[in-house]
Amino acid sequence: MVDKKIKLLALLSGGLDSTLAVKIMLDQGIDVEAINFTTPFCNCDKCAVDSVEENFGIKVHRIFSGQEFLDIVTDPPHGYGSQMNPCIDCRIFMFKKAKEIAQKIGAEGFVTGEVLNERPFSQRKEAMLFIEKEAGVKNKVLRPLTAQHMPETDFEKEGSVDRKRLYSIKGRRRLPQMSLAKELGINDYPCPSGGCLLTDPQFAKRLKDHLKYSDTLDLVDSALLKLGRHFRVDECKVIVGRNEEENKSLLSIANREKKPYLDVVEHMSPITLIDGKNIDNVIQRAAEMTVRYSDAPKDISVKVKVVHRGQHIIEAHAIEDKEIEPFRI
C-alpha cells in the first residue's frame, strides 16, 4: 500500500520499455499522464503511442521538437554518441520540456522506460543521474524497469511508490522485458528498431557532410537529408530522387524554397535538387547524374530541363558508374 497518491508524467516513445514503465506505475495505482516527443529525425511508431493512450486510458501530450532541437544537434554541449546522436543533451532537453508540462498538469515527477546499460552513451548510471541534475529533476525520475539498480527516488522514500514492486532489469538483451510484457498482459508492441535516424551510420554521414559545409541546420535541411541519393559536387549538394514519392517531395521543396532542380525531358526521370553555392558550376554534372538515374538511353545525349533563374534545356550524357562514386555521400 502506498502512503500518498501522486501524479507522474511518463516519457512515452511507444516502444516496449516505456509502455511497460507506464503499465507498472498504473498497476501501483499511480495517476499517470504521458508526453510523447517527436523530432525531425524520428522513425517513431505513432500508432504504438495511440495504442498505449487508448488501451491504458491515459492522456498523452504530443510535442514536436523542431528548430530548438536542431540547434542542439548542430552543437551538442555534451557531444555525440556513436554517430550523430546527442543523446545526453536530447534527454536533458526532453526533461526540461516535460518539466514545463508537469507543472501545468500538477505532476510531481517523471517515469521513463530507461534500462541501465541498455544504451552505452545515455543509459549509464552516471549519465542518467547527470541528466537529472542538469534538467533540474534530480530524484524525481522513476525508472520502474531498472529501479533496483538506481538510487531511491523521492517517491520511493516517502512511500508513494512501492520499491519492492519495481524491477532490476539491465543490459541490452530484451528477453526480460518481453517476459515481463507477457506477465503483464501486454501482447501488442512494436519490434525493436532504430527510432532515431541520428544513430544510423549512413544518415549520420549525410549530416556530418551537411555540417561541414553549413553552420546551421533547419527544418528544410532536415527534410532534404531524409530524401534521395546524395552527392557532393564542389560545395553543392545534389539530391536525386529514388521514387515517385521522393520526387514529389523534392519538387515541392524546390518550388517552395526556390531551389534549382532538373529532370530529363521525354523520359521517366527523377527530380534532382541542387542546394548550395556556385550552382552554375555544377548544373552540367547534376544533369549527367539525373540522366544516369532516368529511363533515358545511356549512350546518347538527351535533353534535361533545368529550372534555375527561369527554365531552360541543356544536353547531357549519363555519368558512368565509376565516375559518380567519388561524389556520393
Describe the fold and architecture.
With 329 residues, the protein is α/β, with parallel strands linked by helices. It has 2 domains: 7-184, HUPs (Rossmann fold, 3-Layer(aba) Sandwich); 227-327, no CATH class. Helices cover 37% and strands 16% of the residues. The protein contains 12 helices and 11 strands. It has helices spanning 16-27, 46-56, 67-74, 87-105, 125-135, 154-157, 175-184, 201-213, 219-225, 244-257, 283-292, 321-324, and strands at residues 7-11, 31-38, 60-64, 109-111, 141-142, 229-233, 236-240, 261-264, 272-275, 302-307, 311-316. Strand 8 (261-264) and strand 9 form a beta hairpin. Helix 1 packs across helix 7 (175-184) and helix 4 crosses helix 5. The protein is elongated and about 75 Å long. The model has no long low-confidence stretch (mean pLDDT 95).
| Global mean pLDDT | 95
Write down the CATH class of the largest domain. Answer: Alpha Beta
Instruction: Output the strand order for the largest sheet.
Output: 6-7-9-8-10-11
Q: What is CATH's topology name of the largest domain?
A: Rossmann fold
So what's the overall shape?
Answer: elongated
CATH-defined superfamily of the largest domain: HUPs
How many structurally independent domains?
Answer: 2
List unreliable stretches of 5+ residues. none
- Sheet/helix structural class: alpha/beta
Q: Which CATH architecture of the largest domain is right?
A: 3-Layer(aba) Sandwich
Output the number of helix runs: 12
Radius of gyration using CA atoms only: 24 Å
Determine the N-to-C terminus distance: 58 Å
Topology, number of strands: 11
- What fraction strand? 15-25%
- Percent helix: 25-40%
Elements, N to C (H/E): EHEHEHHEHEHHHHEEHEEHEEH
Largest sheet: 6 strands, antiparallel
